[in-house]
Amino acid sequence: MEDLVVELSGSYRQQGRQHGEALAAVIQEIVSEVVTWEKFEQPERVEWVMGLLETNLRDLAPGVLEEIQGIAEGSGLPYRDILALNVIADIWQAQRFCSAMGWADTPDGPIIGKTNDIGQHKEKYHQPFRRRSGDGLPAVWATWPGTVWSNCFVNERGLAFGGASLGMQARNERGIGSNCMLRVIMDRCGTVEEVVKLCDRIPVMHHPAHNVYCDLQGTLAALELTPEGTYVCQGPGVSYARATNHFCPGPFEGRDSGEQRHIENSKKRFANLQRLAETLPHTVEGMLDVVRDHAPEGQICQHGNADMWSSTAYVAVPSQRRLLIGRGQPCEAQFMEVVL
Asked: Rounded CA gap, 220 and 213, in Å?
């Protein structure tokens, strides 16, 4: 399955072109499924939001914008469509789902596991990449074809990430898209401390996230990244940290937007992650059991629970610069290994 990995190198613009050329057909499919201009409400407002995000990326993360431009050039698709795909969560103001867990005390050092819950038969949305040279820290990661995001990553300095989405009715017009922010973190940071400092410096526009990070210093923490600021809700100094789709006790508690059934589902998964962390062996195999979990309540591998479906899972092992990726239902998927 190594031939699935897209290799990137060179400048951000060159990496974007390589990405676009390698995945042009699937990018076209995803754009046609996601960037449905005729269905966007208030099209003038959509254009205004996109303009703000483009300006803010140019000011705060110009490499990300150059890569987006390169993807458009490489895929042969309009730049406007590729930009819209990359900021779609901020256009929709939509809550997504997913679960993540980190363990600080495994024989291999800190590790992170994560599921993506974007729907059935969405394997093509989970593309592995590897960059060994060029702009940005060397890294292995996976994301949607056509985007400069990261669903899960490990970089050369041993920082790893896995996260979940939150819902909040707030917007920061000075911010960048939070999914793009994940790539900025991957490209620039090597420790959890550096992540917190960067998130305090660069705001996100709308789409909040509940993210778990670990590093080679043994630091593990969960952060709530919002348009109103960043809050470290778990850690450092913990043996496990978890993330689902509601705010933890703290400054943003109770600010959740979205359907109540999804918030209830999130809280059940959050409780189940605690149970799993306290009962399973803290090993890579134990984390694979987490992402495959089918508990009677709060199952992590979701099969239509509150209309949520797990479509891929990851386990990041930063000490080995290794990412395990299981495309499809995690309980059935064959996990491939991508090593930096």
From this structure: 6
